[in-house]
Amino acid sequence: MADNRAGTKRTRQGLNAGVQAVAAVVLVGGLAGGLWQVQVHKRERAQPAPPADCSRSQRGTLPKGYVTGAQLCEALNRPDLPALLGTPGERAESAYGSEGWVEMAGDQKLAAPEATVQLGTYALKITASYDDLPVAEAAQLLGNGAQVQTVLGHQAVISTVQATAVSFDLGDGKPETGPGGPARSLLVAGSAKDRGDSFELVVWRRDGRSPDDPALFRVAEKVLPTVPGWTAG
Question: Rounded to two decimals, what is the model's pTM?
Answer without folding.
Answer: 0.74
